[in-house]
Amino acid sequence: MDRRSFLTTSAVGGAAAAAGTLAAPAYAQGKRTLTMVTTWGRGLAGVFDAAQRVADSITDMTDGELTVEIKAAGELVGAFEVFDAVTSGQADMYHGADYYFVGQHPSYAFYTAVPFGMTAQELANWYYHDGGMELHDQLGGIFGLKSFLAGNTGAQAGGWFNSEIKSAEDFNGLKFRMPGLGGKALGKLGASVQNIPGAEVYQALSSGAIDGTEWIGPWADEKAGFQEITKIYYTSGFHEPGAGLSVATNRDVFESLSPAHQKVIEIACAECHQWNLAQFLSENGAALQRLQAGGVKTLEFPDDVWDAFGKASAEVHEENMGDSIYKETYESVMASMKASSEWLTKSEGAYRSQRDRVLG
């Protein structure tokens, strides 16, 4: 029995067991309240904003017929417990980064980011036009979820370090926070990789529990206060070149909604994907200038470190190729990314280079 058959069979059994305990969404005078749990601490810059945007859009577009009540990480369940909360019916939907759930299936990484993967635009191309949404739906269906992209951070920074990285050997023994498959790649370089919820990262870095961390980019990182702890900041990373965020609704709950309300959720998520990406990109430039003015040293990893990232990342991908779902998704992503990248490089890439040259 292959992985797909095993997971499908398991999910059917799990769904049957959970059916008797599924908590029905709250009703009041013909209106319905859906509970959204999140992987984000309340107020975390950009990411919690995305969850709030989706919730508000659903409420507004249905004239309050659907109201989404947000529970931040820790308010109903922990940040990394939202997947189980929604599949079991304890909550109706979650907003989060799907790569937190690679333990459920490694293919979930593709809907946030994989090392040396897609930029934000390439992710959107694949998701909306090259089969990504359909694959997300198939994967979610195994676990009783209906999933959509619902936010994007854009390219994420390489992270904050207590000392400079001069060679790949400097990762050996380094205690570093990085989720997803990027974290698994760092582990191959000898790092002690930590998966810590966003709201807890500042304390872990300031206490010395970790030696470094990636989070998102200049704006969100500045809001988190990492510049108060260290001044060494690598501005380009291999692990999240365009990180998507997702909403997943319990599939029984989703299918109990009217077609109009189902479409509202889909559209609210798609609108948030673009809105959130623009939010991050519009904020990051000014935030980077403030960080640099405050003494933060911005650096890039040496080429040999990038080479080590690439080798380790390839090993991580190869280890998952025995899973038919992962292999199908990887091949779909790579085909779409190659086609998108070639045109973007020859058009926008060439234009940006010439614009910088002409305008100085």
Automatic annotation (TrEMBL):
Q: Which residues bind Na(+)?
A: 215
Where does the protein principally reside?
A: periplasm
Where substrate binds, per the record, is at: 156, 177, 214, 240
Q: Which PROSITE patterns match?
A: TAT
Protein's cellular compartments: Periplasm
Cellular-component GO terms for this entry: periplasmic space; tripartite ATP-independent periplasmic transporter complex
Secretion signal, residue range per the UniProt entry: 1-28
Alphabetical keyword list: Metal-binding, Periplasm, Signal
Q: Does the keyword Ribonucleoprotein feature in the UniProt annotation?
A: no
GO MF entry, a single one: metal ion binding
UniProt GO BP: transmembrane transport
- Key word Transcription present in the record? no
InterPro entries, sorted? DctP_fam, SBP_TakP-like, TAT_signal, TAT_signal_bac_arc, TRAP_DctP_sf
Q: What is this protein called?
A: TRAP transporter substrate-binding protein
